[in-house]
Amino acid sequence: MLRFLAKRLVSGLSLLFVISTATYFLIYSSSSNIAINILGEGATPDQIKLKDAQLGLNQPLTTRYLHWLQHALTGNFGISWINNDSVVSEIARRLPVTLTLVLIAIALAALFATILGTLAAVRGGWIDKCVQIGGVLGFAIPGFLLAIFLIEFLAIKHHIFPATGWVKFGDSPYNWLRSITLPIVSLVLATVTSAAQQIRSAVKTVLERDFVRTLTSRGLSRREIILRHVLRSAAPTGLTVLSLQFIGMLGGTVIIEHIFALPGMGDLAVNATTSSDTPLIMGIVVFTVIIVIIVNLVVDLLNGWLNPKVRVQ
Amino acid sequence: MNSKRKLGALLSAPLALVFSLVGVSSSHAAAPTLTIGSMTDIKSWDPSQAHLGHMVPMYQAAYDTFFLRDSSGNIQPDLVKSWRWDATNLNLQMQLQSGVKFTDGESWDSAAAVANLDNNRKGNGPDAAQLSAITSETIDGPLALTVHLQSVNPALLTYLAGSSGFVGAPKLLGTPALAAAPVGTGAYIYNAAASSKGSKYVFTANPNYWNKSEQKFSSVTFLVLLDITARLNALVSGQVDATLLSVQTAPAAKAAGLTLHENFTDVSNIQLFDRAGAKIKALGDVRVRQAMNYAIDRAALLKADQNGIGAATEQMFGPNSGAYLASLDSAYPYDPAKAKALLAAAGYPKLTIPMPDISFNDPTLQAFLTQYYAAVGITIQWVSGSPANYVSDQKSGKDAASWFQLFQGSPWEEIQLIAAPNATWNVFGSTDPKIARYITQIQDNPKQINTYATQINQELVSQAWYVPLFRLSQQFFTGSHVTVVPEPAQAVPSLFNYSPVA
User: B198: which chain A residues are within 8 Å (Cβ-Cβ)?
Assistant: First the structure.
C-alpha cells in the first residue's frame, strides 16, 4: 500500500510540475502590456516603466519563472497584481465557498444517484425509464438555465431564497443554508441524472454475474445481496463517475458562482485570467491540480478498499 | 386559481413552509439603509489607487474629496472651504474646512492635504496622471496651502473632486493597512467584520461626521455583482436598492416597477489613430476618414445594437461638455454614394482596414460595421486577439484603427483624452495646427475654455479623426426605498446623490 501511495504521489507531483510550468509559459505568450492593464488607459510611459519594475516584468521570462518556482516551493505564491492581496489568502478566502458547493453537491449527487440507479437496475419499469430519460434531460439542460429558472421562480417570484450572495455559516447557519440551496440544486441535478444512469448500468451488469446467482441459490435475501454484495462490486464504476463529476463540477461552478454572485474560485479564476494576473492564475492552477490529485488518490484508495482485485493489480 | 398557479403553489409551498418555520429576515430595517449593487470590485482602498467610474461611490463612503462635484457638474466646497487661482492660473490657494477629523483621530489640516496630494500623484495609481501638472505645495497656515502647477490645468478642480481627490488618514497613506481597509473623514466608517473582500463592503454612519447633511443613511452596503443578470435579479428581488443595468436588461427592471435614472457618459466610436497614414496610407487622407463617417447609418445602428436607446452622434464631445454643437450631429448623414465618391476621389475605391475583433464584446455592432463598410468598398479585417489585452494593445500603437467606448467629460478632460498631441487616445500622437493653437489659447485664458473647446470639437469633426457612432445610455435603476440624481460625466451616481424615500 505504501508503495502504491508513493508511486501515486510521485506521479501527482510530476503532473503538478508539468502543468504549472506549462501554464506559466502559456500565460506569458497570451499576455502583453500587463502594466497598462493594471494602471488603466491613462497611464503614462513613466508609470508603466515603474509598474513593470515593481512587478519584475523587466526581467527575463526564465528568471521570473525560477523566482516564482523557488517561492512556490516554500508555499509563497506571491501577491496578486490586481488585488494587491496575498495569493494564498485570496484562495483561502474563496476556496471554502467553492468546496462547500462542490462537496455538498457531490455528496447529494452520490446519495440520490446511487438510490435511483440501484432502483432502476433492480426494479426496472417506470423508475428505469425515468432514470434514462432524466439522464438525457440532465445532459441536455445546462446548469445555468436551471439556475436562472430557480432564481426566477423561487427567489424573485416567491422570495423563498435569495437571488444572489453568500452568507458565512458562522454568521447565520439558516441564511447560509438559504444562500447555498439554489446553487447546489443547479449543480446537483445534471450530476444526479448522469451518475444514476452509469450506476444503473454497473448494477445491472453485476446483477447478471454468476456470484449473484450463487448467493441467491444459497438463500440470501435480495436486499442483502444488493446492499452487501452488488453495490460493493458496482462501487468502483460509481466512484470513478463521481470523481469525474467532482472534477467537472469544479469547472462548472464558474458559471453558477457567477450567476449567484458567490465569492468562490470561479469568478476569481475568470478575473485573474482576463486581467493576466500571473501570480493569482498560477496559485489557482496549483491549488486546483492539487485538489484533482487528492480526489483521484482518494478514489484509488477507496476502490482498493472496496475491491481486492484492484489492490492486487 | 388557474393550473399554472396551482402548480407554482404546490412546488413552492413546502419550501416556503420549511424556511418560514425558521424565520425570514427583513431586508429593510426601520432606519434608512442603502445597498448598492456594484459591477466592479475595489483593488485597493488606498486613495492613490482609486479610479474614475464605477469604483467612485465605494471610495466616497469612507473618503471625502478636496472638492465636490454636484449633480449639475459644478464644483462645490468639500474638504476645501474656499479657493482662488492667481493671475497666472498656475497657483491654487486653498482654505481648508476646520474641525474635521479622520476616523483614526488625526486632524484634517494643511499637512494632511499635502500628504494626500503627494500620495495621489506619486502613488502610481490609475489616475495619477491627472495630477501630473502639480509640481509642489506650499503650506501657508494650519488650514491654508497653495498648490503650484507647471502648466495650466483647467480640469484640476474636477480631478480633485473625483478619483484623484480622495483623502485618507495621513499616517496610513501608502501602507498595506489602508489598502485593506479605508480610513478617511467620510460619512461612513468601514465595517471590516461585516464585510467580505470581493463580495460585500459594509459601512456604518460616522457618528462624528462633520457634514451631517450629506449623511442620509445609517449604513451603506456595496454588493459586488459582476454579472449583469445577477444585478438584475438582486434588484428585482429587493436584495439591492440600486444598480446599473443595460439596455438589454432594462425592460425586465421596468416591468418590475423599478425606476430608471438615465444618464449619458460614454460615446461608442471608431478611433482612426493613424491620421498621418503611417500604417495604412489611406487613413492619412481626410477624404477616406470622412467617407468612413458617411458610410454608417447611425440611427439604424442604434436601433439594432442598443434597442434604439441612446443617441446617435457625429461628434466626440457630449452635450454637457460645454463644447457640444447640435449642428455637428448632422455633419455626416448616412450617404453611401458620397462615401464611395470620396473614396474614389482619394484613390481608394477598394480598401482593407484591419481592426481588433470586437465580437467578444458586441457581435451585433461588429456585424453591422462590416456590412456598412463593405457596401462602400471598405473591407474591415477583424483581427482576433485576447480580450484581456484589448485596451493595452490599442495603447501600444498596434492598430491603425479600432472600436472603443470613450468617456465624455468636461472640455479639458475630453481634450486630454482625445485631442491633445499627448492625449490618452491620441495613440499615434496626431497633431493639427488649429487644435494646438486652441489648446494654447485655453491655457492662456481658461475662462474661455468652452469657446475654444467648441472649435476643437469642430476641427475634430471636419478632420474626421474619429467615427462617432452613438452616445450610450447608462441604465441605472433604483427600487422603491431610495432615489438618486445621476450626474453628468459619471458612470454611476455619487453616493451623496442618493436619498431615502420617505
Answer: 83, 93-94, 263, 267-268
Distance, in Å, from the CA atom of B384 to the CA atom of B401, rounded to the nearest integer, reads 14
> CB contact, 8 Å: A164 with chain B?
yes
User: What grid cell was written down for B137?
Assistant: 505645495
Q: Rounded to 5 degrees, what are φ and ψ at B408?
A: -110, 105
Does any CB of chain B come closer than 8 Å to the CB of residue A257?
no
Q: Whole-angstrom Cα distance, residue A263 to residue A261? A: 6
Amino acid at B328: L
Positive or negative, the Cα torsion across B305, B307, B310, B315? positive
Helix (H) or strand (E) holding A308: helix A308-312
Distance CA B501, CA B236 (A): 17
The phi and psi torsions of B90 (rounded to 5 degrees) equal -110, -5
Q: Which residues of B touch A167 (CB under 8 A)?
A: none
pLDDT the model gives residue B291: 98
Residues sharing a CB contact under 8 Å with residue A160, sequence separation 6 or more, in sequence order? A154, B12, B15, B16, B19
- The distance of B365 to chain A (nearest Cα, Å) reads 22
Cα–Cα distance measured from residue B367 to residue B374, given in angstroms and rounded to the nearest whole number: 11
Q: Where are the beta strands (DSSP E) in B154-233?
A: 188-190, 200-205, 219-224
ipTM higher than the 0.85 cut: no
Averages of pLDDT over runs of 10 residues in chain A (313 residues) are 82 93 87 78 84 88 94 94 89 94 94 91 87 84 89 92 92 93 92 88 90 89 87 86 87 89 90 88 95 89 76 57
* Selection from B301, B264, B258 nearest residue B473 by Cα: B264
Q: Strand pairing of B311-312 and B378-383?
A: unpaired
- B66 in Cβ contact with B110 (< 8 Å): no
- Cβ atoms < 10 Å from Cβ of B95: 17
DSSP-assigned letters across all residues of B457-489:
HHHHHHTT-EEEEEEEEEEEEE-SSEEE---TT
What's the grid cell of residue B235? Answer: 434588484
Q: B351-356 and B378-383 as β-strands: parallel, antiparallel, unpaired?
A: parallel
Question: Per the CB < 8 Å rule, is A258 touching B8?
Answer: no
Model confidence pLDDT, tens digit, residues A135-190: 888 878 888 889 999 999 999 998 899 999 999 998 899 999 999 999 999 999 88
Reported as half-sphere exposure (CB side, CA atoms, 13 A), residue B187 has a value of: 22
pLDDT at B13: 46
Contacts of A259 in chain B (CB under 8 A): 227, 229-230
Q: What is the DSSP string of A193-258?
A: HHHHHHHHHHHHHHHTSHHHHHHHHTT--HHHIIIIIIHHHHHHHHHHHHHHHHHHHHHHHHHHHH
Among candidate residues A144, A98, A99, the one with its CA nearest the CA of residue A264: A98
- CA B53 to each of CA B166, B396, B492: distance values in angstroms, whole numbers, following the listed order: 14, 23, 7
Give me the sign of the Cα torsion angle A50, A51, A53, A59. negative
Nearest CA in chain A to B423: A42
**Residue where the block lists cell 443617441:** B311
Query: Alpha-carbon distance B410 to A78, whole Å?
Result: 40
- The angle subtended at Cα B365 by Cα B359 and Cα B370, nearest 5°, is 90
**CA angle, A107 as apex, A101 and A113 as ends, to 5°?**
120
Which residue matches cell numbers 485597493? Answer: B44
